[in-house]
Specification:
By secondary structure, the protein is an alpha+beta fold. The chain has a domain of 97 residues: Ribosomal Protein S5, domain 2. It is built from 6 helices and 5 strands. Strands 1-2-5-3-4 form a 5-stranded mixed β-sheet. The N and C termini lie far apart (100 Å). The mean pLDDT is 85.
Length: 164
């Protein structure tokens, strides 16, 4: 009889644990993330990868937790990176672009940001696709660094030949 009571207690405890887990799952599904992104995209250039999330905000760009102008201090890279965001300033006035960049140099990163923002804007509003394509923001520059060949100094540079 003691065994029957122990097994009943165990089954009751497991049912209660299952119910609490189910209620937590329902609660997490019902909750909305604070300032959840409404569009996201990835832009790539050479070895740089930029992941872009568009959120409700003040019309600014944040790169790796820093303001855009602080991260890209070279004027040409800064202008290239902001081009797709500034081209649609009436739409992006109420948005914040939260960007995470890895790899590459500052020029490749800026081009990756430009492509990522353009793709995110198109995923947010499909009618912008024609305009982005016309402005060249959706064109992917697929050139990569050529690999080094065996028996050579670099990708194309050879070791100097000596006759004697």
């Amino acid at each position: 009889m003691a065994k029957a009571q122990a097994s009943t207690a165990k089954s009751t405890a497991s049912k209660a644990a299952t119910k609490s887990a189910a209620s937590k799952a329902k609660a997490s599904v019902g909750k909305k993330e604070k300032n959840a992104p409404f569009a996201q995209a990835v832009g790539r250039r050479k070895s740089a990868v930029a992941r872009v999330w568009l959120r409700k905000g003040k019309g600014e760009i944040v790169v790796n937790g820093r303001p855009f102008d602080e991260y890209f201090d070279v004027p040409t890279a800064s202008a290239a990176g902001q081009a797709s965001f500034n081209a649609f300033s009436s739409l992006t006035k109420g948005m914040t672009a939260d960007i995470n960049i890895k790899g590459g140099g500052f020029t490749a990163q800026a081009d990756a940001v430009k492509l990522g923002i353009a793709r995110a804007l198109v995923s947010f509003d499909e009618t912008l696709k024609v305009e982005c394509r016309k402005l060249g923001f959706l064109t992917v520059d697929s050139r990569l660094k050529e690999r080094k060949k065996p028996g050579q100094k670099a990708a194309r540079a050879k070791f100097q030949f000596t006759k004697r």
